[in-house]
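Entry:
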Amino acid sequence: SPIFEKTVFLDDTVTEKLIVDESFEVRDLLYIERQKKSFLLLTLSSTDAKLYKWNNGEFEKLPSALPASISEFINDAPEKSANFTDTDNRKQLLVEKFLHQVDQELGNILSSQQLPLMVLTTEKIIGEFKKKTHHAASIIGYARGYTEEATPYEYMNLIKPQLEAWKQAQEEKILLRLTNAANQRKLVTGIYNIWTHLATGKG
């Protein structure tokens, strides 16, 4: 309006739309803005996996087909042996099967949820999962320090540095796009300049 303007930066592609009315349709923008603050959290160790969604300031545990425990794969592994090497190989095989199944189910989850994913895991398993996952493009960060006894409140403290780094990276991408647009003379700011461009058919 002649007395008010506000720019909201969205890191999503939107369809250009011009509204001239007494009020503006902002529900879609508010929905996108709210969704940006949501993310999925996978807690993962060599023995269990759980999935949460950060929404409205708290973690909500989501139902999923993730294997709840590595014990689900014991019957698929070779028989136990008294040989230490064979025992170690058996344990490694169980972990690999477990992580493979976790990653497979993540594909279904990410397809339906379409949200960024944070992984909270253990020092022992982080390297293994990074090598095996097919969903690196959806993962916004890895945090160490997960224990089965940790509470959702502690989860947020553990992932906070990685979450802040991701948010900072997103803001830098937006600023880079704005800078590039300005350099290419494609950026117009201020309500008067916008009206002028629209009036001359440049909008």
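Residues 59 and 151 are 10 Å apart (CA to CA).
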